[in-house]
Amino acid sequence: MRDKPRRRSSRQTAYPGTTFVARRLILGAAQTVAVVLLVFALTEALPGDAAVALAGDQPDPARITAIREAMDLDRPAYERLLDWASGLLHGDFGTSLTSGRPVGQYISDGFGPTLLLAGLTVALLIPIGFGLGVLAARHEGRLVDRLVSSVTLAVYAVPEFALGVLLITVFALRLGWLPPTAVGYGTDLLAHPAALVLPVLVLLSRPVCSIARLVRAGMVDALAAPYAAHARRYGVPGARIRYTHALPNALAPAAQQLARTIDWLLCGVIVVEALYVIPGLGTVLLNAVAERDVPVVQGLAVVFGVLTVVLNLGADLVAHRLTPRAGVAA
After folding, report:
1. Phi first, then psi: what are they for 95, rounded to 5°?
2. Which of the residues 46, 101, 230, 276 has an alpha carbon 20 to 30 A from that of 252?
3. Contact (Cβ atoms closer than 8 angstroms) between residue 44 and residue 298
4. Among residues 195, 203, 187, which one has the least CA distance to residue 110?
5. Which residue(s) pair with 8 in the sheet?
6. Which residues, 6 or more positions from 172, have their beta carbon under 8 angstroms from its beta carbon?
7. What is the CA radius of gyration of the chain?
8. How many CB atoms lie within 10 A of CB 26?
9. pLDDT in tens, 153-175
10. What tens digit of pLDDT does each residue of 304-323 get?
């Protein structure tokens, strides 16, 4: 008779976790559909006529009519939405209006530099952000803690564009240590690592500060918890308490913040690529907007939106795995 309640409790413990994952997956699918619909609706709501813009400074009515037919603008919006959405399911993002190239080719060409910038940023962000947070928590209330907290707060308050201009002025124009832009280097930026230093520093500035402060707060709260004091009374070494018990308590919120940071990189990289003239997805997007190349804008917006959904979904699942009780309450 005693075994049955135990089996029920184990099932009840596993069931909310499965429900949580299923709910998040369904929510992620719904968000992806919403992204596609929103991107199409926003591009449809853009002011002006794309056919007139593409026809030139002195558009001929016959040419405008031909462009509208080529762009299927003479068809109802819902038909164009269905055709575009069905193409997305098969990996077809459409064709550029200005060059006639597939939109997927634009995305693949710009994906390399953007992925390189984001990858380097994340690879440096994890050790630096967690290291500063642990260092500040270990010296809570002392000079090191106050110094780390003050510097991270000050750097976080500086906008990326202003920081980028400042770094160019100091390290490129005044000191001449680094190139101010990536002009002339093409897409093979790994062969010219000096051109990556300033962009990566700008992308690192705010995420490092937020991760460090989050890890510090989580570890300080964990070290002040009763179980930590109980472990000290039993003679457990301080390093074991910090890194085996306190640090894991900061991992769940830090994992979510890390996913949001990667999501933010997709937006921040647009500013950085424009500032340092890096031929990535941000530059492709800016050029497409300037040329009113609607299919390219739509394709990039869908890529950014779907990546945002996937990253946040992954962060929720990781946080649930690290703190299972949160999933029961969700």
Report:
1. -125, 140
2. 230
3. no
4. 187
5. none
6. 178, 179, 180, 198
7. 25
8. 10
9. 888 888 888 888 898 898 888 88
10. 888 878 877 776 776 666 66
pTM of the predicted model as reported, rounded to 2 decimal places: 0.70
Q: pLDDT tens for residues 240-289?
A: 666 666 667 666 667 667 767 776 776 667 788 888 888 888 888 888 87
Helical axes 194-223 vs 143-156, angle rounded to 10°: 130
- CA–CA gap between residue 226 and residue 231 (Å, rounded): 9
Q: Residue 1 in 3-state DSSP?
A: coil
Give the mean model confidence (pLDDT) for residues 126-150: 85
Task: Name residue 183's amino acid.
Answer: V
- Which DSSP string do the residues of 33-63 spell out, in sequence order? HHHHHHHHHHHHT-SS-HHHHHH-SS--HHH
- The contacts of residue 308 (CB under 8 Å, 6+ apart) are 35, 263, 266
Nearest alpha carbon to residue 93 among 75, 76, 111: 111
pLDDT at site 99? 77
Complete DSSP assignment for 231-272: HHHTT--HHHIIIIIIHHHHHHHHHHHHHHHHHHHHHHHHHH
| Segments in the chain forming alpha helices (H) | 3-44, 50-55, 61-70, 77-89, 103-138, 143-156, 160-167, 194-223, 226-233, 238-240, 247-276, 281-290, 294-322, 324-329
Q: Which of 272, 286, 264 is nearest to 164 (CA)?
A: 272
Nearest to 152 by CA among 221, 216, 223, 218: 216
Which tens digit of pLDDT belongs to each residue from 15-63?
446 787 788 788 878 888 888 888 888 777 766 666 666 666 666 677 7
What are 193-238's pLDDT values in tens digits? 888 888 889 888 888 888 888 888 877 777 776 766 666 776 766 6
Closest by alpha carbon to 314, among 52, 21, 103? Answer: 21
